[in-house]
Specification:
Elements (H helix, E strand, L loop, with lengths): L1 E3 L6 H11 L3 E2 L7 H10 L6 H14 L5 E5 L10 H11 L5 E5 L9 H6 L3 H34 L3 H16 L4 H16 L10 E7 L1 H5 L7 H7 L2 E5 L3 H8 L2 H5 L2 H10 L11 H13 L4 E7 L3 H17 L3 E6 L5 H23 L8
Parallel strand pairs: 1-2, 1-3, 3-4, 5-6, 5-7, 7-8
Helix pairs in contact: 1-6, 2-3, 3-4, 6-7, 6-8, 6-10, 7-8, 13-14, 14-15
The protein binds iron/sulfur cluster.
The site of iron/sulfur cluster (SF4) has 13 residues, from α15.
């Protein structure tokens, strides 16, 4: 068995470690690229949302390297994601690929569900899998913290290219490593390198909250490396979504009761939503309110063209912007998104926020309450 999975931010680092520790070969899909997107776009329904197209591209690239089994998370609720595994399996079958899908879904009862496969293991194997899973969770948390640190360093240092170099080297090393111990060692060494980069604390750094559809927000290729780009404009970004928060909210003891931050965010959104809207539409609105209350300088919502939950959230955000007196910009991405126009919009938004901050500091406009 050779397992692969779609790219989703730092999730691949933990998944690779867990599966390799279980003694199974992993084929990590090549870093998402134009080629991945072209493959996915070619073989997916035209109007389906972008994440599915990228998934298909990832799978085809991994299958060509020998993968025969795909792991993907499942979902319920009013959003297309719940159907991803079914649609993706059909697309690959139509293309003539004979691959097996394992779906991580608490509610899935069929033979393909990971829970079902897990229940068939012997006790000792179950303990091994659980131990590896906990290690994988720890690695994902460490990898997300490293990304946060790199974003902070990029915003505050004058040597921004050095941060890119450290992070690019780190990703290369992860690709060529094997097993959780090696991965932990690489993360720790990279952390030390980042910490050694000098910060210029005289910089006027802006703080922006990134909200939106989870895949778009956490997968750098899909959001055109928005965090990196903002770092180059001396902006410190924060995002609620990450593989660690996803695990915390769906696969932990806390998940049974709702993680405390998630509870807080959903409580903020309750004023606008009385029911589920699918995906993370409520979290987008709730975390926007949270950023406004924490006095961030601005918010950027990013989502793929046609994403229903985020369209609903986008219709609410102007009210949030008005009520909490915070600028919010929405960026919609698809396979046609051009980088030049995207950078221009980000640059203009950052200019606006900087001007606004000056005016707030000079008392020319009323500060957020
Ligand atoms: S959240 Fe949006 S982009 Fe993601 S699967 Fe659902 S509809 Fe598609």
């Amino acid at each position: 068995m050779k397992i692969t999975f779609p790219h989703m931010g730092n999730a691949y680092i933990g998944a690779k470690a867990v599966i390799e520790d279980c003694g199974i070969e992993v084929i990590v899909p090549p870093k998402c690229s134009k080629k991945t997107l072209e493959l996915g776009t070619k073989y997916s329904p035209e109007t389906i949302c972008l994440p599915l197209k990228i998934n298909i591209g990832n799978y085809i690239e991994s299958i060509k390297k020998g993968a025969d089994t795909i792991i993907i998370t499942g979902s319920t609720g009013p959003c297309r994601f719940g159907l991803y595994s079914v649609v993706e399996e059909e697309i690959l079958r139509d293309l003539g690929y004979d691959v097996k899908f394992l779906v991580i879904d608490a509610f899935e009862k069929n033979d393909n569900s990971l829970l079902n496969q897990f229940s068939k293991l012997k006790s000792k194997q179950k303990i091994n899998v659980l131990t590896s899973f906990l290690k994988g969770k720890k690695i994902i948390i460490m990898a997300d913290r490293l990304t946060t640190l790199s974003n902070r360093k990029r915003a505050y240092t004058n040597n921004k290219r050095e941060i890119d170099k450290i992070m690019d080297d780190y990703r290369d090393q992860i690709y060529h490593s094997k097993g959780s111990n090696k991965i932990i060692e690489i993360i720790k060494k990279t952390n030390e390198k980042l910490l050694s980069i000098k910060e210029d604390n005289t910089k006027d750094v802006l703080e922006i909250g990134i909200v939106g559809e989870i895949f778009t927000v956490i997968e750098p290729f899909v959001n055109l490396e928005v965090e990196r780009k903002l770092g180059y404009f001396d902006v410190l970004v924060h995002r609620y979504h990450s593989p660690s928060t996803w695990i915390e909210n769906h696969m932990s003891i806390k998940a049974l009761f709702g993680g405390s931050l998630e509870r807080e965010i959903l409580k903020e959104a309750r004023k606008y939503f009385k029911t589920l809207v699918g995906g993370h539409g409520r979290e987008t609105v709730g975390s926007s309110i949270m950023y406004a209350k924490k006095k961030y300088d601005g918010i950027i919502q990013i989502y793929p063209f046609g994403c229903m939950p985020e369209i609903v959230a986008a219709s609410v955000l102007p009210s949030v912007s008005k009520e909490y007196n915070i600028p919010i910009m929405t960026l919609i991405v698809d396979e046609m998104t051009g980088e030049a126009g995207y950078i221009t919009r980000i640059e203009a938004f950052v200019d606006l926020l900087r001007k606004r901050k000056e005016q707030v500091n000079n008392g020319k406009i009323v500060s957020r309450s």
